[in-house]
């Protein structure tokens, strides 16, 4: 099953890029990316359905809050770098997006931007998504980031492949910064995945990164 992109109800101002469609601890596949359709429905009563609703809500709330309300939920287009289900990673690990799937995802992203010229901002979520977008020359921060974030061989060659960067905490190098895509005028702002927002616990180190984002939209 392939997850569908979520298309904005109005002219899109922002493109949000998630990871892949399968929940980390479940075989459930989202019909729409990040269960975005749940945000526009009544809050479900069952716990399993509420989890989908909360993920969708976190996605839209994050963009609404970091842009100080300038970009509304109705103006957000959402896709994944990989819209196909991938094998689960070992417990506690992050699913590896194979390079061939990342290339396919990038082609989809480029088509979205071509077909939606009103998009001004692109918000790629999570370390691995931003790694592939830079590795595949969609945008650049520094060679240092790509080199330090390159996945370890042991993760790639595992029976259930997983993504583990050579060095830890490299996302702090780029999260919340502004970049330009290589072949366009859209502004790239790397952000945390919806499941890690609002910021708390182990992600408290990103508070300063997010202050930078808020300042862009004052």
Question: Describe it for me?
Answer:
The chain has 218 residues and is an alpha/beta fold. The protein has one domain: Uracil-DNA Glycosylase, subunit E (3-Layer(aba) Sandwich), CATH 3.40.470. Helix content is 31%, strand content 10%. It is built from six helices and seven strands. It has helices spanning 47-66, 99-115, 127-135, 143-149, 153-156, 207-216; strands at residues 14-18, 76-80, 94-95, 121-124, 162-163, 179-180, 187-188. The strands form two sheets. It has a five-stranded mixed sheet, covered by helices on one side. The longest helix is centred in the first third of the chain and has 20 residues, at 47-66. The chain is globular. The model has no long low-confidence stretch (mean pLDDT 94).
């Amino acid at each position: 099953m392939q997850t569908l992109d979520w298309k904005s109800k109005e002219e899109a101002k922002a493109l949000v890029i998630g990871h892949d469609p399968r929940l980390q601890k479940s075989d459930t596949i989202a019909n729409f990316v990040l269960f975005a359709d749940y945000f526009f429905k009544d809050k479900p009563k069952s716990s399993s359905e509420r989890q989908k609703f909360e993920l969708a809500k976190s996605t839209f709330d994050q963009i609404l809050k970091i842009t100080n309300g300038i970009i509304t939920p109705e103006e957000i287009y959402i896709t994944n770098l990989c819209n196909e289900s991938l094998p689960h990673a070992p417990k506690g690990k992050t699913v590896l997006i194979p390079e061939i799937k990342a290339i396919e995802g990038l082609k989809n992203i480029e088509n979205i931007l071509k077909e939606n010229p009103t998009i001004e901002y692109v918000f790629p979520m999570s370390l691995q998504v931003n790694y592939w977008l830079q590795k595949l020359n969609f945008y650049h921060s520094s060679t240092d980031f790509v080199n330090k974030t390159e996945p370890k061989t042991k993760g790639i060659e595992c029976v259930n492949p997983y993504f583990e960067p050579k060095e830890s905490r490299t996302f702090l190098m780029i999260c919340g910064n502004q970049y330009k895509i290589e072949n366009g005028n859209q502004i790239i702002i790397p952000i945390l995945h919806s499941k890690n927002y609002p910021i708390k616990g182990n992600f408290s180190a990103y508070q300063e990164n997010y202050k930078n984002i808020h300042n862009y939209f004052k």
